[in-house]
Amino acid sequence: MAEQLICRNVTLGYEGIPVTEGLDFTVSSGDYLCILGENGSGKSTLVKALLGLIPAMSGEIIRSGEIAGGVGYLPQQTVVQRDFPASVREIVRSGCIRKAGLRPFYNREEKALAEENMARLGISELAGRCYRELSGGQQQRVLLARALCATGHILLLDEPVTGLDPKAQADLYELIAQLNRSGVTMIMVSHDVSAVRYASHILHIGSREQLFFGTRQDYLASRLGQSFLITETGDAGGDEADAEIEQPEPECSGVSAKAAAAAAAGAGLLAVGTGAAIYKYVKRGEQSDR
Question: Global pTM?
Answer without folding.
Answer: 0.78
